[in-house]
Design goal:
Blueprint lengths: L6 H14 L11 H40 L4 H10 L6 H10 L1 H11 L2
Helix pairs in contact: 1-2, 2-4, 4-5
């Protein structure tokens, strides 16, 4: 019996990879083996960095809250400790937004903490 290969599926799979490699530089966009490796590596980086992005944003929020808290004479750790003690359940994303874009609202939070 002759060997049967599913050329339709193989071509579709290659076509899909080449579509994902569109925009890459040099042989990475049009040579199958190079493009396949480049796309697989890109997918790994994308997967990893979707998680790292969360880490980066948390760091950014902490920096912004710290800056806002220091304007009112306290450090980030003191601010967050008092916020937890006073049951203020605003997350870091919201607090950072208040500290940066709405300083009067952030001051109201600080005043509530310092009561």
């Amino acid at each position: 019996m002759p060997r049967s290969v599913n050329a339709v599926a193989s071509r579709a799979r290659r076509k899909n990879f080449m579509k994902q490699a569109k925009g890459f530089f040099g042989r990475r966009k049009n040579v199958w083996t190079v493009a396949k490796n480049a796309v697989e590596k890109a997918m790994l980086y994308a997967y990893r960095d979707r998680r790292n992005k969360k880490r980066s944003f948390r760091g950014l929020w902490i920096t912004r809250i710290n800056a806002g808290a220091r304007l009112h004479g306290m450090s980030y750790s003191v601010f967050m400790g008092k916020a937890k003690a006073h049951n203020i359940e605003l997350n870091r994303k919201v607090l950072a937004d208040l500290a940066m874009n709405h300083p009067e609202a952030f001051k109201a939070v600080v005043d509530q903490i310092n009561k």
